Amino acid sequence: MRVLIVGEGPNDEAVLRTLVSRVLGEKVEVTFRKVSESVQTTRLKGEGSEKRAVAWIREAQRANFSALVLVIDNDNQNDRVTQLDRAQTSGVASTPRALGVAVESIEAWILADDQAFSQAAEVKPENFPVSPEKLSKAKLKPLVDHLLTQSKSSRSSDFYSDVVQMMRTDIVAKKCPLGFAPFYARLNELALSQ
Q: What pLDDT band is residue 184 in, cutting at 50, 70 and 90?
């Protein structure tokens, strides 16, 4: 199975590659591209994020990928979840997909399971947010950095991958019901459709 993963940067890539591997299996061939890369959006209907997601769906189909996994940060744009929901159900292409929005950023998912974070950081940091999706993006990344000052780890792609490898997805889904829960359900649907 060839999967195109689209995200915002190296930490998103680490999170998504690890989740895809956990859910779809180790034998998945993955290609990562940044959501900001140029894709054909002319003559497409919809708003900004929806239009861009549909363009990535078409690109995945054009390049003969078996599936598309795309996650963007919410960035305080409250309509992004709705826009990606519309793109998810769009009939524009037959490519199976799991689209999602990290509310407010992928760091919310990293902070949601304090046990996984603590194991990856090899320390028991304190003051984990109860509802990480309620924190602004401007607070999430510095909070991850602050919690990591108590450990030998740094906010790197390898650290993010380690957290995701150990995370209890049911806990993350409960603490991140707006972003992670629907995305993870879609990723599991992809696994069932293989």
A: very high
DSSP H helical ranges for the chain: 10-24, 48-62, 80-89, 107-112, 114-121, 137-148, 157-166, 169-175, 180-192
The CB-based long-range contact list for 82-87 (8 Å cut-off, 24+ gap) reads 83/46, 83/47, 83/48, 83/49, 83/50, 83/53, 84/49, 84/50, 84/53, 85/182, 86/46, 86/50, 87/46, 87/49, 87/50, 87/53, 87/54, 87/57
pTM for the model:
0.92
Average pLDDT of the chain, as a whole number: 91
Compute the distance between CA of residue 165 and CA of residue 112 in angstroms, rounded to an integer.
Answer: 13
Query: Is the predicted pLDDT of residue 41 greater than 70, yes or no?
Result: no
Query: What pLDDT is recorded for position 39?
Result: 83
Reference 165, options 116, 118, 122; nearest CA is: 116
